Amino acid sequence: MIRHHSEDYIAPSEGRIDAVIASLGVQRSFFSSPSMVITINGKMVRKSAKVRADDKVHLEYDEEIFSGLEAEDIPLDVIYEDDDILVIDKKAGIAVHPGAGLHGGTIANALLSRYGEDFASTDDERPGIVHRLDKDTSGVMVIAKNAEALSALQSQFAAHSTEKHYLAIVKGRLPSLHAVIESGIERDSRDRKRFRAVDDISKGRYAKTEYRVERELNGYTLSDIRIYTGRTHQIRVHMKYIGHPILGDPIYGQHDPRYPDAALMLHAHTLDFTHPSSGERMHFEAPLPVHFISALDRLSL
Q: For the chain, which end, N or C, has fewer CB atoms within 10 Å of the first or last residue's CB respectively?
């Protein structure tokens, strides 16, 4: 479940805002949550902003509470498994973990069933979950099977030493065959479920996305997309930002009467990382799902 916090503080001292407010009992990790919105004296700021004594600070953020997570016998499409990691091909339509209004039927529930109640002890909040894919995004994911592997993999994702490539079908012809998109990404003040890109990379959270055109289609383009940062909805936000939203995107896309039933055409195609125990560099690939192949066929006519 999701617990929403809306809290007001008076800064007791001068310093970086996340450090100062953490001294009042707010977990510092919450400041890295994509849901965190911080204002100082009514002005929205980043977590690295400086605060002065007696400034008025307002925080709004969501806390994920996974107490009571129940095991569910949900099949997983396993690509690879050993004592430390599980690599799966996540299907579109299944969430990674419970959230607002969603209490079951997730990857986290499936993992608890697969490995037993003790598995939850590796991470009280997100058992084994190293990174996320949106519910409607399919593709390759790695899961940690013990605390040591979880810590090692989380460090790699935080340091951006992993390599993640997606395939996406985007609206229109892209302006170049290859480009890098850099911007800030912040929560949309008008809709907390949406994010938006801002030109000033000092605002919001810095995000970097690279695309390469794979194939031009009938009014759309198949693109290989690499993300260097892992912001919520990053690819979806950046493709909308440059005027080429992803086909079937219910939040950032544009309705196309030719394809009214299109699902989100975003697939996590490959993932490279260093094995947490052996130190071996590993590469995994998830094949395109049927609905993605069908869309390519329709758009190629």
A: C
